[in-house]
């Protein structure tokens, strides 16, 4: 950590700053310039991280040298984290597509969707049994019945299940059914929930919060990992900006930024970013080019009648077309795509 003092700082102030740092357990190193005095702090930066250093008289700026996240950082583990997922691995060379409806609506629609997306090359099925909705009057999911349906579909098709957990009280229950626990955008900074999912042995798909920075997303991952669960998948799903042409603003740059900052796999969710069907494929293809390890895509047998997110859900024919188009982008990015039958 480097402390820059203000112009005209007195010797007494410099001594006081050094005392504060040294009493916290770090060593200091002074560098006097013509205009400014710089205090280099050597040792475990975490010892002073919580201290209000900017409030000490004479301190103008504090620059952290180390990243605030440790377990999630690239330096901690230079090799990419690979997470077993059904018959495949997330974070390897394969671009892993997880597809399905926004909400689990019925057994019949889940079963049809799983069979269709699986045949098209999806490696996992998604669907919410517990749904975060902006309005308390909107459909909020089938709950326990939805989890049971997901379990049955999993045994029917062999496809692993990604489903959302919204509450600390439901973590154990959902973890009993899900292959991957999704933490939704609205819960990215629900620190109690992050702690609880960190105590399970289920991989966690962590969506970026609506207004979260990349650093905050990585710190949220750090919460999960600090509890002993190393299997976190980060997911860029669009952030809220002034733009209204799309449901959210897809932060494409976050993907290569994350790939540089962390060893964790990075997914993209083009459906929630776009908010409209025709935009899903272009955003997904761009995500593959930007280095995403996987895609989370909403698919519904009849989007017109979907109880949630129908506007952004692909129907089966559109999903087939989407997967066909995806193959070329995967090849260009040096990635394999699914165990789908050979494409013409
Ligand atoms: C979802 O995946 O259906 C969902 C609610 O996503 P998000 O948390 O990204 O809005
Ligand atoms: Mn949705």
Could you explain the architecture of this structure?
- The chain is of the alpha/beta class and 344 residues long.
- The protein folds into two domains: 2-63, Alpha-Beta Plaits, CATH 3.30.70.1140; 83-337, Aldolase class I (TIM Barrel), CATH 3.20.20.
- Helix content is 32%, strand content 19%.
- The protein has helices spanning 11-23, 107-120, 144-157, 171-175, 191-198, 214-226, 254-261, 270-274, 277-290, 316-332, and strands spanning 2-5, 27-32, 37-42, 59-63, 83-85, 88-90, 94-100, 124-126, 161-164, 180-183, 204-207, 232-236, 266-268, 294-298, 336-337.
- Manganese (II) ion is lined by residues 102, 272, 298, 308-309.
Q: What is the topology?
A:
Elements: E1 2-5, H1 11-23, E2 27-32, E3 37-42, E4 59-63, E5 83-85, E6 88-90, E7 94-100, H2 107-120, E8 124-126, H3 144-157, E9 161-164, H4 171-175, E10 180-183, H5 191-198, E11 204-207, H6 214-226, E12 232-236, H7 254-261, E13 266-268, H8 270-274, H9 277-290, E14 294-298, H10 316-332, E15 336-337
Parallel strand pairs: 7-8, 7-14, 7-15, 8-9, 9-10, 10-11, 11-12, 12-13, 13-14
Antiparallel strand pairs: 1-3, 1-4, 2-3, 5-6
Helix pairs in contact: 2-3, 2-10, 5-6, 9-10
The structure holds phosphoenolpyruvate and manganese (II) ion (MN).
The site of manganese (II) ion has 5 residues, from loops.
